[in-house]
Amino acid sequence: xxxxxxxxxxxxxxxxxxxxxxxxxxxxxxxxxxxxxxxxxxxxxxxxxxxxxxxxxxxxxxxxxxxxxxxxxxxxxxxxxxxxxxxxxxxxxxxxxxxxxxxxxxxxxxxxxxxxxxxxxxxxxxxxxxxxxxxxxxxxxxxxxxxxxxxxxxxxxxxxxxxxxxxxxxxxxxxxxxxxxxxxxxxxxxxxxxxxxxxxxxxxxxxxxxxxxxxxxxxxxxxxxxxxxxxxxxxxxxxxxxxxxxxxxxxxxxxxxxxxxxxxxxxxxxxxxxxxxxxxxxxxxxxxxxxxxxxxxxxxxxxxxxxxxxxxxxxxxxxxxxxxxxxxxxxxxxxxxxxxxxxxxxxxxxxxxxxxxxxxxxxxxxxxxxxxxxxxxxxxxxxxxxxxxxxxxxxxxxxxxxxxxxxxxxxxxxxxxxxxxxxxxxxxx
Length: 429
Prior knowledge:
This protein has about 425 residues and is of the alpha/beta class.
């Protein structure tokens, strides 16, 4: 019996698309189930752009929708990016035409995953997106396949390599955020417009997908609580270290009786914890199950090779005929996403105050915290050169976010306080 040849159309020829074409040209017979993969059509914004791979023998499509619906396309691979526009139109067209879809587009899945899942199920074709989260590290497959025999209670981790690189470099060099960001852009770790990364939005897309897979609910990116790293100061990194912590951008999703909480915040992680020791552009993730306990995975979250490998793995799943719901339940049976109000969040916190060097300041701050019902866990007063005042740092016991916000608002108004207190969460990991 001859092997089936699968004809693949690839939209998007950037870093990941180029890596995929290179891999498939070298290993067309890679799939364990047998069969060959041949790229028969491609589409990108610029046909004439120089590329390190040869596309002269592959049909060119100016419109990715046309590629997605072409009769010769057996599997459509979307690597264009973006939550709407050509990417969404092409994926919708492919699914309506009964074509299996593989994508690395986290924004598309996080913002439109439920409706796309319904289209895929109506056409009885797979919609796969392993490469959308953590690149080549198989976080999606772990939740989608390996954890179906358990009840996932929560996930938490580092899901953006750009932010982790910046925070790691600020920590190692004592450098300011702006200086390290410039270095990251020059080295290719950050985009010319880094907003999606440093603003926390990229990590929020990814953890939204993980939450849907973990809890069997519709993805609801709009409900995520998002804070980026733009305001993380070298002073906070230094003082956090004095308290035994490192600062990392932590994305988390937790299930409780009240609903689902999806959050992205720069957070303090205890030194020695695996997430604290995750440096550079690496990603890392904890998955906590009721029966299995805690699982930790770490690996590359981006790059040509790792991400293309994840795309290829999804292509192989299509070739084997693997079939399961896009998320953990059919689209019509997905639980509604019930978000926990941010004000009801309970956790430990780090507060950094900048105050005048005068008597009675600590007493006034302590009194205000006590009046609000905030209990202090640790306290540090450490003069810092060129700080513009005296930094006072304290950590709290677990407290409701609404109570903490009230305390910060009151402290800000004290005569000896020079600026609004800086709040960072202490990660619940």
